[in-house]
Amino acid sequence: MRRREFVKAGFALAAASSVVPGRMWADVPDHMWEGYNFGCPTVTSRLDQGPFGISQDEGWFTIFATQPSRHHIRNFGTGLVGYTWEENGPSLTVQCGKETLEQSVEKLASLPFVDVLYIRCDWRDIQTSPGKLELSPVWEATFDAAKRHNLGVGFRIQLSSPNIQPQKLSLPDFLREKVPMVNIGHKSKVHGVDFDFYEPRYDSPEFQ
């Protein structure tokens, strides 16, 4: 646009606004919010709010569908997990002396629907002295069984667990007197107990 035409257009707009009847929104006097009629603006153009039909795009098309299998299909990521060691230790049959740890792990690994063997142990189960790891026998038994049955292995080493308190802590015994403990109370939605739970100070140099 040329400069002269731009100036003329500006003057024309100012002249038109001066003859517009009524009060502009900026001239609304002070008023109470409660009970005031703010009015409802007239919407001349609004996006389509639906409902939308399924045929408006091709997003509903099925690219591929699998067929059910009559055989077990291995799924190492999210398949059925067999715990060779859980929060409270090995299986109850092992704890009661009815079978050995190796027998229990082998029975679990031989189940046709198990995909992964899992060890969920505490820190105290893998270390009993400074600077050296001493893995519980369940580790060797689990890896041997997994190799024989072509299974995956997963594990979790817990730094703290309420399941073995108050008899013992997940913390190794050699650190018990070196790491400050914090009383976190006895309220628990899962454990109906009348004793206080303790957590280690995670910022303690000995703990780290």
Keywords:
single chain, 208 residues, alpha/beta, three-stranded parallel beta sheet, two-stranded antiparallel ribbon, 4 helices, 20% helix, 13% strand, elongated
Q: Tell me the number of strands.
A: 5
Q: Could you give the distance between the termini?
A: 71 Å
Number of helices: 4
Rounded average pLDDT: 75
User: Biggest sheet, in brief?
Assistant: 3 strands, parallel
* H-E order: HEHHEHEEE
Strand content: 5-15%
> Tell me, what's the shape?
elongated
- What is the CA-based Rg, rounded? 35 Å
Widest sheet: strand ordering: 1-2-3
Summarize the structure.
The chain is built from 4 helices and 5 strands. It has helices at residues 3-18, 92-95, 101-109, 137-149, and strands at 81-85, 116-122, 152-158, 181-185, 197-200. Helix 4 (137-149) links the parallel strand 2 and strand 3.
Break the fold down into its secondary structure elements and pairings.
Layout: H1 3-18, E1 81-85, H2 92-95, H3 101-109, E2 116-122, H4 137-149, E3 152-158, E4 181-185, E5 197-200
Parallel strand pairs: 1-2, 2-3
Antiparallel strand pairs: 4-5
Characterization of the model:
With 208 residues, this protein is an alpha/beta fold. Among the domains are: 83 residues, no CATH class; 44 residues, no CATH class. It is 20% helix and 13% strand. The chain is built from four helices and five strands, in the order H-E-H-H-E-H-E-E-E. The strands form two sheets. Strands 1-2-3 form a three-stranded parallel sheet. A two-stranded antiparallel sheet has the order 4-5. Helix 3 packs parallel to helix 4.
